Amino acid sequence: MTNFDVNLNHYSDAEKIFAKQVLDWFFQADEKSFLTVFLNPQEQKILLELAKQIGFSVRFGGGYQRAENKRALIGDHKENDFQISLLQLNYASHYVHLHHSTVLGSLLHHGISYDRIGDVIHENDNWQLLIDSSLADFVVENVKRAASKKITFEKIPFEKILNPQSDEKEKEIVISSQRIDLLISQIYNFSRAHAKDLIETGQVMVNWFEKDNTSYLAKLGDVVSTHGYGRIRLITTRGTTNRNKIRLKIGIVGKG
Question: Which residue positions does the secretion signal occupy (predicted)?
């Protein structure tokens, strides 16, 4: 049996819960290669860090080269099937405008969990979905609406995958501190008190994990997601103003 004596002290409480799940996957992969659910970028990072400590082989696949959400194959085996299907979303594009949240919501409404869904990608008005192959037929047969809009899904070969567009828009802001309560209140134009409420009720995530510390100082590279609003990526600082405020370049997806 592989030695799984690893140090988890540098992870947050939420990350430790995931790290312990990873260790359980390693136990299973010690006997036979193990295929995970879809993992967000921070989960991929944690899995890879632990795999390096222990000496496990890990490969990631998300259906296309620039995928954000990926499944992992753990173990020194020759298995290469990440069991991902590509679905095309069909709808009346001349009359209906879709959003990422609308497409995702159509799946969650049918009880499909986030970790069984890969990237939702689009190119102009064309939308596609990467999903756990075991759920592809269910989606095709049962998911017929996104909110009030009629839609259908069909399975298509990966040769037809889109060249997805990024929804992120870059902008520069001036801010007195990189505290997440101040950051989201300024970007989304609501009160600091409301920002604190959102953080304390688990509606704000930093790097895909809940962050309930309102005074947390976001670092460059952090991704701050706020439920119902979107997400902010801290790209770089551009010095300070005469009043010692920070010039911060950010990427925004959603409102802002």
Answer: none
Query: Residue 195, SS3?
Result: helix
- Specify whether 119 is located in the same domain as 177: no
End-to-end Cα distance, the chain: 51
Nearest to 143 by CA among 112, 164, 185: 112
Q: CA 85, 126, 235 angle in degrees (round to 5)?
A: 85
Indicate the residue among 31, 50, 74 that finishes a domain. Answer: 74
pTM recorded for the entire structure = 0.88
Give the domain range for residue 62: 13-74
The alpha carbon of residue 134 and the mean position of all alpha carbons in its chain are separated, in whole angstroms, by 21
Q: How many domains in the chain? A: 3
Q: Are 43 and 69 in contact, with CB atoms under 8 Å apart? A: no
53 membership: H or E segment, kind and range: helix 41-54
CB 162, CB 121: distance < 8 Å: yes
173 with 146, same domain: the answer is: no
